[in-house]
């Protein structure tokens, strides 16, 4: 180990573990797709070398880099306690695998990786729901749904919450059906009235056309009679004149 701070200064729960940023040579005991587990001599606890900590280049599978039983140099970059379990994180890219020399003596790469892991940590279990706010009661106005500091009511006035859409929705279809029925009846009546008016207009137009045609025919007949009578009168006059000339 490069660091020898002593086990007495270790925090509770981390006794018997390799100190942070120490370098050691261990044996690969298990290989998974996401990384390899390495056991250090003198320690019972195994640590994980994630695929992102195996090489500076991208690694798809841990079996591409190491095999079970292989000896590798590692650097301790993380120690966490989660409940009753202790998690150890190792890095291979921070150590020269040929000489065991520290490639990151100032631990800059280790700190950057730890920050990156914290940013992408899942916090879904610590979500805040709106029920914690909606179930509160204001001590100023006595209404539910807001805090006293956010209360907008004036002294002596109280405000009630509006009903939800689910409570109002069932009543709307009944009102609509009741209003639609009389509208349909009124529309039908209007249509019938319009049809009656149109029929009356058509009858009137027919009668007028018939009367016009009859009057025109009668006028024509009278004109013809007048012409005929005029012709006859002219003939009679001519005949009389002709007779008078003969007698002379």
Along the chain, the helix and strand elements come as EEEEEHHHH
Q: Alpha-carbon distance between the termini? A: 178 Å
| Adjacency order of strands in the biggest sheet | 1-2-3-5-4
In CATH, the architecture of the domain at 22-116 is Beta Barrel
Figure out the total of helices. Answer: 4
- Report mean pLDDT, rounded to a whole number: 75
Based on helices, strands and strand pairing, what is the structural class? alpha+beta
Q: Report the strand count.
A: 5
Largest sheet, strands/sense/barrel = 5 strands, mixed, barrel
What is the highest CATH level, the class of the domain at 22-116?
Mainly Beta
How much helical structure, as a percent, in the residues? 25-40%
Poorly predicted ranges: 1-10
Protein name: Zinc finger CCHC domain-containing protein 17
InterPro entries: NA-bd_OB-fold, S1_domain, Znf_CCHC
GO molecular function: RNA binding; zinc ion binding
Organism: Labrus bergylta (ballan wrasse)
Present the secondary structure layout.
Blueprint: E1 23-31, E2 35-39, E3 46-50, E4 71-82, E5 85-91, H1 108-119, H2 131-134, H3 165-168, H4 171-247
Parallel strand pairs: 3-5
Antiparallel strand pairs: 1-2, 1-4, 2-3, 4-5
Describe the model.
It contains four helices and five strands; from the N terminus they run E-E-E-E-E-H-H-H-H. Mean pLDDT is 75; it is low at 1-10. The chain starts with 22 loop residues before the first strand and ends with a helix. The chain is α+β, with helices and mostly antiparallel strands. The protein has a domain at 22-116: Nucleic acid-binding proteins (OB fold (Dihydrolipoamide Acetyltransferase, E2P)). It is elongated and about 175 Å long.
């Amino acid at each position: 180990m490069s660091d020898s701070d002593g086990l007495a200064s270790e925090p509770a729960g981390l006794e018997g573990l390799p100190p942070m940023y120490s370098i050691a040579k261990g044996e690969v005991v298990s290989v998974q797709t996401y990384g390899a587990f390495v056991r250090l001599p003198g320690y019972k606890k195994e640590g994980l070398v994630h695929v992102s900590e195996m090489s500076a280049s991208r690694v798809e599978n841990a079996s591409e880099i190491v095999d079970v039983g292989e000896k590798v140099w590692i650097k301790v970059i993380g120690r966490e306690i989660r409940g009753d379990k202790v998690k150890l994180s190792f890095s291979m890219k921070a150590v020269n695998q040929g000489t065991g020399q520290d490639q990151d003596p100032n631990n800059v790469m280790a700190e950057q990786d730890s920050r990156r892991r914290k940013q992408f940590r899942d916090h879904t279990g610590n979500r805040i729901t709106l029920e914690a706010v909606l179930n509160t009661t204001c001590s100023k106005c006595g209404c539910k749904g807001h805090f006293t500091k956010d209360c907008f009511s004036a002294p002596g006035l109280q405000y009630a919450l509006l009903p939800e859409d689910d409570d109002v929705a069932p009543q709307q279809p009944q009102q609509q059906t009741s209003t639609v029925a009389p509208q349909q009846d009124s529309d039908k009546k209007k249509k019938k009235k319009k049809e009656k008016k149109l029929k009356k207009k058509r009858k009137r137009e027919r009668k007028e056309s018939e009367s016009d045609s009859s009057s025109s025919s009668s006028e024509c007949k009278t004109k013809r009679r007048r012409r005929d009578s005029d012709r006859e009168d002219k003939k009679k006059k001519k005949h009389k004149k002709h007779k008078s000339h003969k007698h002379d």
